[in-house]
UniProtKB/TrEMBL annotation:
Pfam families, A to Z: PTE (PF02126)
Record's keyword terms, sorted: Hydrolase, Metal-binding
Record-linked PANTHER family: PHOSPHOTRIESTERASE-RELATED, PHOSPHOTRIESTERASE-RELATED PROTEIN
Record-given protein name: Phosphotriesterase-related protein
Protein's UniProt keywords contain Transmembrane: no
Any one GO MF annotation of this record: hydrolase activity
Matches recorded under InterPro entries: Metal_Hydrolase, Phosphotriesterase
Family: Belongs to the metallo-dependent hydrolases superfamily. Phosphotriesterase family.
């Protein structure tokens, strides 16, 4: 059984699934100035989308997914393309609003599985860092067994757990607490790895040292570091790796997303060299500019555009089914 925000469903009901999305989120504290040092408060419009793509963190408006109505419309578009389930991975530090998720799921017709976790250290409130290890573990356990704090919504997994290039004490404590709680609950943990480091195997070892089955570990946005040897090392731990498609933006001088062509080529090579690799996919929408209404690829990008490319490249239907349906279901199934 899989825990959604509207209750438990059978694994067979899951369908094509995106394992890392954000439906309501607030990352405005991550805003950065333009490349010339000026601050820009512009809204996301077709007229300034070029400027925004040149520095994706420049607009506070871009970093705030604040409309349930818009999210419903965007998910309905994705559902028409064949997407059936999303994992909502907005964690503490990213402005989560889990109480709004049941209404969004009902109105859009898309299953929503809520993750609950804590993001990278610099985004975390001091109140979270001041919890003891036992308190963190208890909060995670209650989110899975009863409800996410302040809501009636139960989490279906823990995440998105944040890690910095140098894993901080607060991050390590949260990782250990989440792994312990997830082990008891038989659920998965999703992880954000910093692209400036190569800590995937280290994080997997940390989580498994707390008893977590490596098959319950999901490393999201693995395409941020397209280093074959490194990704092979992660895959060989038994963990799941996720490719996130659709964002091809700059984050200031010298920092830029990969292109989808590069991601697809890397994914195809991984399937060839590691045919048993456990892989999922997402669009990892976390900003307004990624929404269809603003010229972005939207939540349905993978099923609408990426999958046909993979089919034309010769990826067998069974392999695509594994990435889109089977692996997500196995990851999220609570038994």
């Amino acid at each position: 059984m899989i825990q959604t925000v509207l209750g438990r469903i059978e694994s067979a009901q899951l369908g094509r699934t995106s394992t890392n999305e954000h439906l309501l989120a607030d990352s405005r504290h991550l805003r950065r100035p333009l490349r010339d040092g000026r601050w820009w408060d512009g809204e996301v419009t077709p007229q300034n989308l070029g400027d925004l793509r040149w520095n994706w963190l420049a607009s506070a408006d871009n970093l705030h997914l604040d409309s349930a109505d818009v999210t419903v419309e965007e998910l309905a578009l994705a559902r028409a393309d064949g997407l059936r389930t999303v994992v909502e991975a907005t964690s503490i530090g990213m402005g989560p609003d889990p109480a709004g998720l049941p209404d969004i799921s009902r109105r859009s017709g898309v299953h929503v599985v809520a993750a609950f976790g804590s993001y990278i250290d610099k985004t975390l409130p001091e109140s979270w860092k001041q919890h003891s290890d036992d308190e963190m573990r208890a909060i995670f356990s209650r989110a899975l067994a009863e409800s996410i704090p302040g809501t009636d919504v139960r989490a279906g997994l823990l995440g998105l757990m944040g890690t910095s290039a140098e894993i901080t004490l607060a991050e390590e404590r949260a990782l250990r607490a989440a792994a312990s709680a997830a082990t008891d609950a038989g659920c998965a943990v999703s992880i954000r790895l910093d692209a400036a480091a190569r800590r995937g195997p280290e994080v997997a070892a940390l989580l498994t040292s707390e008893g977590l089955d490596p098959r319950r570990i999901l490393f999201c946005n693995i395409d941020k570091v397209m280093d074959a040897a490194y990704v092979h090392d992660i895959v060989d731990t038994g963990a799941v790796v996720e490719f996130a498609f659709g964002s091809e933006n700059s984050f200031g001088d010298g920092a830029r997303d990969a292109t989808d062509d590069q991601r697809i080529a890397f994914l195809l090579a991984l399937c060839e060299t590691r045919p048993e690799a456990r892989i999922t996919m997402s669009s990892s929408v976390w900003t307004k500019g990624q929404l269809s209404r603003h010229g972005g690829m939207g939540y349905g990008h993978v099923v609408r555009r990426v999958v046909p490319v993979l089919e034309r490249a010769g990826v067998p239907a069974g392999r695509l089914e594994r990435m889109l349906v089977t692996e997500p279901a196995d990851l999220l199934d609570l038994g």
